[in-house]
């Protein structure tokens, strides 16, 4: 095997048959993969929680926990659900394959395993995992850039993290789909990433902005959407970034959307954004108590700015769970 044929990746093999484990381990090690063999499903789960695994090859019939059990557990956790799972089975019934699909298995092979087919499936699934890892890395870079904006202003410390938590809490209360909850978590972190395109003398200006400066500042929502647009996994985040400064009566920016034209996720984030701005210290005033902040926000609802139903949901959450600001934020 030449150097260019060496493949990278950590593969977990779980099979209670020692001969099968050794055969698979030898075959994959020769291809350059790092192999972690275990004899049962329980040890497989423990290993997944301990090591960074790129792929799992699981025998279906094992003591303690079956391959189905392990696959379902891997796919049920946000931290591990993107790990590809290949099930090895001597079971040929459609019911067993359907059960595997329902557990989230990415592929199946029937014993006895064909060497060339196994390697082809493994190479394909490892490559898929590498693609998802690259997406995760890109998202991490965007989040770091967004936090670098926050770090420029001591008054916004913790702002993005609080918005993420507040927004997800509202989404859970409203029963929104998990995809939208994830979008709100990400949106809380990167909603203002477009401020990277705003000159610092405007971004950090202590006094009121001039009309021209205001126009430049308002472009940050468009710039943020453009920065994040290449990530397909951010498709639900883009409307949050672009529209979290819209207002119910159409007086917001950048598109002057009204009422139901504004995405619900953007409405959720803007409510939490305003609350956090009011309840944290700013250069021009001290943080307001929650009661005063909500009184101001209800007045702004009367002016036609915010969605009353979203505000009511958030106020109920704050009252129930006693969400509090975490400290010392231009809205």
Structure in words:
The protein is built from 14 helices and five strands. The chain has helices spanning 18-30, 41-50, 67-76, 94-103, 115-151, 159-174, 178-190, 200-203, 211-218, 220-228, 238-243, 264-278, 290-302, 308-321; strands spanning 10-14, 34-38, 55-59, 85-89, 107-110. Helix 3 (67-76) links the parallel strand 3 (55-59) and strand 4 (85-89). The longest helix is centred in the middle third of the chain and has 37 residues, at 115-151. The model is unreliable at 324-331 (pLDDT under 50).
Topology:
Blueprint: E1 10-14, H1 18-30, E2 34-38, H2 41-50, E3 55-59, H3 67-76, E4 85-89, H4 94-103, E5 107-110, H5 115-151, H6 159-174, H7 178-190, H8 200-203, H9 211-218, H10 220-228, H11 238-243, H12 264-278, H13 290-302, H14 308-321
Parallel strand pairs: 1-2, 1-3, 3-4, 4-5
* CATH topology-level name of the largest domain: Hypothetical protein af1432
| Proper CATH architecture of the largest domain | Orthogonal Bundle
Q: Could you tell me the radius of gyration in angstroms?
A: 25 Å
Counting structural domains, the number is 2
Going by CATH, what is the homologous superfamily of the largest domain?
Answer: Hypothetical protein af1432
CATH class category of the largest domain: Mainly Alpha
Mean pLDDT: 86
Beta-strand percentage range: 5-15%
Which structural class matches the secondary elements? alpha/beta
The string of secondary-structure elements, in order, is EHEHEHEHEHHHHHHHHHH
């Amino acid at each position: 095997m030449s150097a260019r044929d060496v493949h990278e990746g950590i593969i977990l093999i779980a099979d209670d048959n020692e001969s099968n484990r050794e055969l698979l381990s030898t075959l994959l090690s020769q291809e350059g993969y790092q192999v972690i063999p275990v004899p049962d499903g329980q040890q497989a789960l423990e290993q997944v929680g301990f090591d960074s695994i790129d792929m799992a090859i699981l025998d279906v019939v094992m003591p303690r926990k079956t391959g189905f059990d392990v696959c379902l557990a891997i796919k049920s956790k946000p931290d591990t659900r993107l790990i590809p799972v290949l099930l090895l089975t001597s079971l040929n019934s459609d019911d067993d394959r359907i059960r595997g699909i329902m557990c989230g298995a990415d592929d199946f092979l029937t014993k006895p395993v064909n060497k060339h087919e196994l390697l082809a499936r493994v190479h394909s699934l490892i490559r898929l995992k590498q693609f998802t890892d690259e997406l995760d890395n890109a998202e991490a870079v965007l989040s770091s850039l967004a936090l670098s904006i926050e770090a420029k202003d001591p008054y916004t410390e913790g702002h993005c993290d609080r918005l993420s938590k507040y927004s997800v809490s509202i989404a859970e209360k409203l029963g929104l789909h998990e995809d939208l909850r994830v979008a709100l978590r990400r949106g809380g972190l990167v909603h203002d990433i477009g401020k990277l395109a705003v000159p610092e003398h405007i971004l950090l200006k202590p006094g009121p902005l001039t009309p021209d400066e205001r126009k430049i500042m308002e472009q940050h929502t468009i710039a943020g959407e453009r920065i994040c647009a290449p990530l397909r996994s951010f498709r639900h985040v883009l409307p949050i970034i672009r529209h979290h400064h819209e207002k119910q009566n159409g007086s917001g920016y950048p598109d002057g959307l009204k009422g139901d034209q504004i995405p619900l996720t953007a409405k959720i984030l803007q409510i939490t954004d305003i609350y956090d701005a009011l309840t944290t210290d700013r250069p021009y005033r001290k943080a307001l108590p929650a009661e005063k902040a909500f009184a101001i926000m209800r007045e702004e609802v009367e002016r036609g700015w915010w969605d009353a139903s979203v505000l009511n949901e958030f106020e109920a959450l704050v009252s129930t769970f006693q969400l509090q600001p975490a400290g010392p934020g231009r809205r």
